[in-house]
Structures are given as C-alpha cells and as structure tokens.
C-alpha cells in the first residue's frame, strides 16, 4: 500500500507519523520503503540514515523531488508498503504523490487555524480524485494536549465534518516527548519504550491498513 503524509500546514506532524508508522510496519516484518519528498528539509531521510546504525528493524529510504507519480507507481509492487512524506505546503511532490497513493493522511493540530487549511487540501484532493478515484483521504488529530483533549478533539470533529473527501480517524496522536526524542535516535516513540505512543500508532495503523 502507498501511504502519503501530506497537507498544507507546516509542523503538523507528517514526518513524525511517517517515521512511527514506518518503524511499526518494519517491526512487523514488512518490507517498507520510505520516500522523503521534502528533501530540502530532510527530516525523514536524516532519521532513516541514523536508524541504519542501530539494531532496529531496518527499512529502505530514498529522497525524491519533483514528480513522484512514476516512481511511486513503479515501486508499488516491489515493497509491502511505501510511506511518502511531503512538505507542509502545496508542492509538486504532494500533488503528484496523491495521484499514485492509496491513502493520504493529513495530520492536524486540533485548532481552528490548522483545520481551516484543510479546505485548500480538499480542493487538491478533488483534482487528484479525477485521476486516482481510489484515493482515500484521512485526517488525524495530532499533537493533542492531554487535558482538554475531549473538547479539542470533539471541536475538530465538528469543524471537519463539513469537509468533502476527508474522513476523520478515531485515532488521536497526543503530544509526547518520546516522539521528539525518537527522532535523534532513528527510532519510533514505541522503540524508545513509550507504551502509550505505541498504542496510538498501532491504533492508527489498524484503522488505516484494515
Ligand atoms: N505527537 C507529538 N508529540 C510531540 N512532539 C511532536 C509530535 N508530533 C510532532 N512533534 C514535533 O513537532 C515538530 C514538527 O513535527 P514534524 O516535523 O513531524 O512536522 P511536519 O508536519 O513534518 O513539518 P513540515 O511541514 O515542516 O515538514 C517536530 O519538532 C516534532 O518532533
Ligand atoms: Mg516534515
């Protein structure tokens, strides 16, 4: 399956989720390719490079800019899963990856400003669906704060309910230091020993991959 992390909001958690989902799939014995479609920033590929010098389950990674469609389409059958990370703005990488992806996940912080960026993403999805009618698009609330969590998540649910082409995942990703610490270690938050993070990433994967 080709899973794209994309959106129109910087810092929402796309690269973080790509790493954690990729690491979980690798730990399940899957053959995983990670594509860093935001190579000027290089968050995903730098993480994957650090992972190579660990004993953790390995994955393959590549940086790719420009049109990702052909690359993704040709690699689809060579891996169990291809995880693509793109930058926090409209880009050629984001638009062309949407044409090949099975699933697109847009993480958003549970705020009005972040949610509003999805209106634009929704218009990009509408165009992509003309070429890739099978594309499924999900929103996941990311970097939720534990205390007012129910309210923020419920408010987000209301805000996104009017958006076409998207469904909101039940899974919620909370703000956890382990997600930050894991980046420098080439690991996932779960591999850093955070059991709560492990469960929320498992829930996300189960929801999207089932
Ligand atoms: N659930 C989380 N808990 C704690 N910190 C997080 C979480 N998700 C992301 N972060 C932190 O927030 C920052 C931005 O996250 P990340 O790089 O994943 O966002 P992004 O959407 O890929 O950003 P960009 O659009 O710039 O590519 C990073 O410092 C990351 O460690
Ligand atoms: Mg990123």
Automatic annotation (TrEMBL):
SUPFAM superfamilies attached to this UniProt entry: P-loop containing nucleoside triphosphate hydrolases (SSF52540)
CDD domains per record: ParAB_family
Pfam families noted in UniProt: MipZ
Protein name: Chromosome partitioning protein
Organism, scientific name: Paraglaciecola polaris LMG 21857
Organism lineage string: Bacteria, Pseudomonadati, Pseudomonadota, Gammaproteobacteria, Alteromonadales
């Amino acid at each position: 399956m080709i899973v794209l992390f994309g959106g129109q909001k910087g810092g929402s958690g796309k690269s973080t989720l790509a790493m954690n989902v990729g690491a979980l799939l690798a730990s399940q014995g899957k053959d995983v390719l990670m594509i860093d479609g935001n190579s000027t920033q290089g968050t995903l590929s730098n993480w994957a490079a650090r992972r190579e010098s660990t004993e953790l389950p390995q994955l393959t990674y590549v940086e790719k800019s420009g049109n990702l469609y052909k690359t993704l389409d040709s690699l689809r059958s060579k891996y169990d899963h291809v995880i693509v990370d793109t930058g926090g703005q409209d880009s050629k990488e984001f638009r062309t990856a949407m044409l090949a992806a099975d699933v697109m996940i847009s993480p958003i912080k549970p705020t009005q400003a972040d949610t509003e960026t999805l209106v634009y993403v929704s218009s990009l999805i509408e165009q992509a669906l003309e070429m890739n009618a099978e594309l499924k698009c999900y929103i996941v609330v990311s970097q939720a704060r534990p205390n007012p969590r129910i309210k923020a998540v419920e408010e987000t649910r209301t805000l996104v309910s009017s958006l076409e082409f998207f469904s909101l995942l039940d899974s919620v990703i909370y703000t956890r230091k382990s997600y930050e610490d894991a980046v420098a270690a080439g690991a996932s938050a779960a591999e850093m020993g955070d059991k709560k993070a492990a469960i929320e990433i498992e829930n996300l994967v189960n929801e999207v991959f089932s």
